[in-house]
Write a structure and sequence with these properties.
The complex is a heterodimer of chains A (497) and B (316). Chain A is an all-alpha fold and 497 residues long. Chain A is built from 24 helices and 2 strands. Helices cover 41% and strands 20% of the residues of chain B. Classes of the chains: A mainly alpha (497), B alpha/beta (316). Chain A: Keywords: Membrane, Transmembrane, Transmembrane helix.
Chain lengths: 497, 316
Amino acid sequence: MEFYTNALAQVLTVGPLVAMIGATLLGVFIGALPGLNPVMAIALLLPLTYSMDPLVALGMVAGIYNGSMYGGAIPAILLRIPGTPASIATTFDGFPMADRGEASKALKIACWSSAVGGIASAIALMTVGPLLARVTLHFGPAEYFWIAIFGMASVGVMVGSDPVKGIMAAVLGLLIGTMGIDTLSGQARFTFEQTWLLGGLDLIVVLVGLYALPPVLQLAEKCDLKGLSAAQLKLTNMPFTRAELRSFLPTWLRSSGIGIAVGILPGAGGNIAAFLSYNAAKNASDDPESFGKGNPQGVAAAECGNNADNAASMIPALSLGIPGNVVAALVLSALTIHGLQPGPQLFHQNPVLVGGFMMEMLLTSVLIFALGGTLATRVFAQFQRLPGVLLVPSILILMCVGVYVINGRPVDLWVMLGAGLIGYLFEKVNVPLAPIILGMILGPMAEQSVRRALLISRGDATELFTRPISAVLIVMTLLVIVWPVVKALRRRRLRAR
Amino acid sequence: MTFKAACIGLTAAAALAAPVLAEYPERTIEMTIPAGAGGGTDTSARKLAILLEEKLGTSIAILNVGGGGGSVGASQFMQAKPDGYALFATWNSPLTTVPQVQNVAYSLDSFTPIASTSETAYTLCVKADFPATTGEEFLAELAANPGKYTYGNDGIGGTMQLAAERIFQTRQIEAVAIPFGGAGETLQNFLGGHVDIYGGSISTVLPYVESGEAKCPLVTSAADVPALPGASGLEALGMADKETLLWRAILGPKGLDPQIVSLLADTIEEAVNDPGYVEFLKTKGEVPNVVKGEALGARLQAEFDALAAVSKALGL
């Protein structure tokens, strides 16, 4: 306890406080702009922080990270454009809500859910984190393979009304995921002698094209010269009723748990957390059909899940010295530059700094309550009032800038355009886009893990099934597949009666 | 990677006049790093860039281009204009190792060597209960049990794997290589018991050696490493010529003005020997090592040739 009170005293000084508030605002902004992402922003800011007090620097990292995970929800809800890969699941119900005039309600749910997820995750980081970190070491390549399969099984629920089209989209994602240098053999696959393809297609580039271009083209199709009037854009700031809050509670609890569990595993990530949370909320619901049509629980689940991943992803980094994602790697890199050695000794080496950073992850999540709601509704929602002739080119410019700065090469803009046109065509023929992204994320994870597992077992495939954690994951995967079918059958029987 | 970088890319393309040394550097320099943000090469280069900015009196924009074990960044960089405003901060693997296993568009001739900055050995470590402690015992245990032990490394055909295989080939050892995405991932699988031997950078595993959970019988440098007193250097094992190091360097595109090269090389030498940078390198288990200009080119060629022989024997 003394550990945290000491750290809190250090954090509650002018420097870190200003850094956290400024960075959270900046983070929301970065998350809200498609193409710009927290990794880029933190990498850009880090060199500036080398000469700063480390707690100020880490406060900025915490603010940007937490702020951007929420910020991604804003365009997801208002325009159906996910600001970050982790907010894809937010578009499913967020945009339908906005479409029927509940934009401000959806934004508010996203804000509260993000804050709750972030707070739960920070508390996990501060309490059970270091203990759980050792447990994650039991997850070897075989277990990671089953996690990827578990994630893919959830696609089944996302494919919508036409499973064949959904599976087609997922397979396309898997194929894209195989492009580039194969890490296990060093062979180049599907690179067509193009050096820029050696690293495969960049997830963010494909995401921006696939997800941002179709809504933009649809806006253009409408030929809307006026935009929404102030009256049409109902921005009432209604407080949640007690009944509403109570209805979100189970979703928040479930999504926080999923987000933390995914975050703590090095290499899994917020994108998967949001999908799994959404899927779990849908499975738990009495009315799964209403998901995808503007169910507030869908927004709550996705946003809570992706923020709950954040602080938890720092657990392996801070307690073991193993960075689970790029942001965690950047945090470790910042600590190294400030002369600290990441690893199990970090807590003893500099308890104030580590405790302070944890505190900052918590405080910046709380800040989302205060800053997120006002900012989103007062500033960003106003964009909806812009007429299409202004909105369409502005978004296109932002997309191009965001995509270009990722690798600094023009060819990425063509990839974005190509992905966008494909996305536009797919939407016209009702092929869902989410499975493509999920395939791109989970495909490489599944392939590399299973091949590593087989290398370790010298080609003995039974090893994949006999390990206890694998067995649990297999059972969970089967449940995810079977459960919706059982529920649907039961409902049909009830209706028949 | 940055707005700054994007703007600089545009200005660089627009600038037509060749720089005159008296005026160099008069605008922002773009530094390409062939790895993602947050890794070892990235951290070292960013820290060095701050010192260089001070000494050169200009700003340096960092562009991370990861992928393909560094070959994507190297391929992209080789097309840069040799005007002194495009630099490449890399580790040795993309230049000397990756071309052995990948069909890359570049060769050593595609770059102008400027100066190396720092170096460190790789290490092989085992859990505390492993039935061998010294380097000699460790190699004997591996040689006595062909195919029994697995070792994690930084990727197939990566420098770490070749460093280990050079030693293994000399002693007729057969161990199963398991490629991971980087030292952090290897450490995770080593600590979890999924692979028997950790193969990778020293700084990543060091905390676990200090806590007694792991012990490192071997380093891949000829000399011993002070941070790992229990580990044998290769000279002590009678194979000093099998040394393979992880080292970092700054290069320019092919055809860079020799005057600019020597100005940059001298500035880099000063920056690397700055007490603050030496201290920073120490926390990462690295030491300063500056080899400049043509001598650096010779070092790259020698390493390239030695690793070509190893990878040929491995059938990669």
